[in-house]
Structures are given as structure tokens and as C-alpha cells.
Amino acid sequence: MSPASDQAPLHAGRPGSGAAPGPQAHEVLMRVDNLGLHAGGRELQHGLTFDVRAGEVLAICGASGCGKSTLLRHMIGLQTPEVGTVTWVAGGEARDVHGDDPPRREIGVAFQAGALWSSMSVGENLMLPLELYTDLDEAQREQQARFKLALAGLADPATFDAEPSSLSGGMRKRAAIARALMLDPPLLCLDEPSAGLDPLTSARLDDLIKRLKTDVGTAIVLVTHELDSLFAVADRLLFLDVQARTATALGPPAELRDHGPDAVREFLNRGEVPA
Ligand SMILES: Nc1ncnc2c1ncn2[C@@H]1O[C@H](COP(=O)(O)OP(=O)(O)OP(=O)(O)O)[C@@H](O)[C@H]1O
């Protein structure tokens, strides 16, 4: 994996036929309204209301156990809320993420535990969404998969045929991101992409996130504990307070670090609350 490979061209056309044009900058893609999160019979969060805009990086932060991953699972439709709604609103439509016609193609997901299928090669893993959701033939599917691997910084042609278990942790994360991008979703959800990576590999992932945002226009919702990564990539930060059990701040990270509520400033200043 060379840094130069990160410089692959970013567009190979949208896969599949009849794909809609991408959303406009700053358009609201998703609306979360009065959402409550529960686990094991107890309330983790209540009254979560915010939107996700086209082309932004929105980081979800808060102390361990506050419900960040649970929120992400609600946002992608993997978990159904007891209270509140998550609605896909891009292009003037209003589709309940938990309804009969969920926006599956529109939301790419690369989760910590969302490993690649070990019984398939990396390339086969990537081509699977195209088999399910498009009418592309095999040669076109392979072309798209190789393109997305290069986009994710895995330009070595051997990676396509490699078994997932033969890749390093950082490469597997990139391959999972490449797979999440196969249908060119306007929104990509990442759960702790830097977890377990060394600082250099983590910084390269930050670069990839920035390029996806800037050059492809993908909106990214990111759960992260890594403050360096947060300040490097996030446009806005949603802070879930573990004590108040609700979001107590939403805004640009640097602004919240200096002027946010005490708990947010403490979190963003590594435990120190500046006077
Ligand atoms: N299926 C479940 N059953 C019972 N409890 C659960 C379940 N899923 C999550 N929890 C609990 O809910 C709380 C929130 O979990 P979640 O993973 O969303 O938090 P988090 O903020 O992402 O934490 P971390 O930063 O440690 O990853 C935790 O206390 C967890 O143990």
C-alpha cells in the first residue's frame, strides 16, 4: 500500500444503469428526529434530533458506552427505534430508514465488526453488491471493484485476488471501505475506522476520508475516539453526553473545543478544561 496509490482518479462513472444524479452540496440527506436509544432495557440516549448533509463529515463522539455505535446502527436501519424516526430525505423524498423501502443503496457501511467474507476473495467481496443491486456484467463488475480498491489506496492488482485474511488490518479496513463504496452511496457510515491501527496507517485513512469528501462528495458519518482524526476530518461533531443521556453539542469541532459546554471541552481537550 503506497501513499502514491491514494492518488488514483476518483470517478469511473456510477455503477449500474439509471443511477440518479448525486445530491447537491449541503442538501439534507438524512433527518434524525427525537430518536431514543435503548439497550438491555435501559435508556442510553433520548431526544436526538439532527440532520446529515450532503458532502459533510459528521463525527459522533462521547464517552465509552454512551451509545455511539447504537446510534449508527439505528441510522443505517440495522436497529429499529422504540422512539423517534430516521428518514432519508435526499432529493425531496421521505423514506423511513426502518420502513418498507429503506435506502439500502444510498448508505454505505463499513463497521468495526463488518469484516469481509472470509470464504471469498477481496474482489468477490467487492463485486457482491453489484451482483445484488445492478445489471452490470462480470467484466464491468470487476472493473468497478478494481477501481474502488485503487480509490481506497489498494491499487496493487494482486489485492483483488487476495484472501481477506492475508491483508493487514489497515488494508482490510480500506477494502471494507472500498466495498461500502461499490454502489457510490451519497452517505458512508464508518464505525471507528482507525481503531487498532498505527498512527501512520490511521493518518492515511484520514486522508482517504478527506478525499472521499472533497473529490467524490461523499457524506461521511464517523464514530471515533481519535481526537487527531476528528480534528483532521470532521466538519461537525455531535456529542452524546453519557450523563445527560442526550446530545449536548453539535457544531464544528474547533469551535466546540474552545466554546462548547464543559463536558465537551473536557473531552476535546483530552481531559483538561481550559479556563
Ligand atoms: N444488544 C445489547 N444488549 C445489551 N446491551 C447492549 C447491547 N448493545 C449495546 N449494549 C450496551 O449499550 C451501551 C452502549 O453501547 P454502544 O456500543 O452503542 O456504545 P459506544 O458509545 O459505541 O461505546 P464504545 O465507545 O465503548 O464503543 C453499552 O453499555 C453496551 O454494553
Automatic annotation (TrEMBL):
Keywords recorded for this protein, A-Z: ATP-binding, Cell membrane, Membrane, Nucleotide-binding, Transport
GO MF terms held by the record: ATP binding
Low complexity bias (residue ranges): 12-24
Residue segments, region Disordered: 1-24
UniProt-listed InterPro entries: AAA+_ATPase, ABC_transporter-like_ATP-bd, ABC_transporter-like_CS, P-loop_NTPase
Transport as UniProt keyword: yes
Residues annotated as domain ABC transporter: 30-267
Source superkingdom: Bacteria
Name assigned to this protein: ABC transporter ATP-binding protein
Organism field: Pelomonas lactea
